[in-house]
Amino acid sequence: MVFRQxxxxxxxxxxxxxxxxxxxxANSLGEGGFTGxxxxxKYWFDWSPGITSxxxxxxxxxxxxxxxxxxxxxxxxxxxxxxxxFLWLFEDFGSPIADDLLLASLYAGVTVGLxxxxxxxxxxxxxxxxxxxxxxxxxxxxxIGRTMxxxxxxxxxxxxxxxxxxxxxxxxxxxxxxxxxxxxVQEGLYAAKAAMIMSNRPQEISRLIVEQLGRGTTLLxxxxxxxxxxxxxxxxxxxxxxxxxxxxxxxxxxxxxxVVISDAKNVLGEGFYQEET
Length: 277
Known about the structure:
277 residues; alpha+beta; Alpha-Beta Plaits; 4-stranded antiparallel beta sheet; 10 helices; 4 strands
C-alpha cells in the first residue's frame, strides 16, 4: 500500500512538473503558492524552479516534522522532493503556443491540476503553503483556506506587476482550471447524488428504488414542523447517471413528493468506491 501511494505521488509529480515547464513557464504564465514564487524567481534571476522550490521548502520540512508529526509529513516530503525533481528535469522543456495564451492556460491548468490531484488523492502534497497553512491553523486558529488564499493573492499580484495584465488574467484562468481538475481527480470519479424524499408513499418509493436501481435506502423518521405529524423520509445515494431514473420513479409513485438532491462526495461502500486497506 505504501509503495503504491509513493509510486502514484511520483507519477503525479511527473505530470505536474511537465505541465509547469511545458505550458506555464514556456508561455510566460504564473502560478500560485511556492511554485508561483519559484516561477517568478526563474523569470527575474533565471534560477532553476526545481532547485528554488526545494530550497524554499527545506525550512518548512523541519517545522512540519517537529510540529505536525512525522507520519503527517512523510508523504508531503516525498511529494515535494518528487515535484522539485521533475521541475528540474523538465526545465526549459517546451515551446510557446503561438498567439494563444488561452489555450496555453487551459493546457497548463489541466496538466498541473491532474498531477497535483493525483498527489493529493494518494495522501501527498507539494509542501509550501500547505505546511504554512496547517501550522497557522494549529497555532493561530486561522483557516487553511484563508491562509492559502492570502498567500496566493500576493504571489499572483506580484505576477501581475511582472507579467502584465494580460498574462496575469490568463494565470487566474490557469489557477481556476487547475483547482477544478484537482477537485475532479480527488472526488469526481466517486461523487454521487444524495436524495431526501418526503412523500406520503415512502414505502412504495423505497421498494421501487431497491428493485429497479438496486440501491439500498434508509427510512428516516421525520416530523412535520407545521402539521406535527410523523412520517418516514427516504434517504438514498445514487450515481449521477441514475439520478434521472430516480426522479422518474419518484414522479411515477408520487408526483407531489418533496425531494432535496445534493452532492455526495467521497462515497465509500457497496456499489461505490471501495477504499483499500
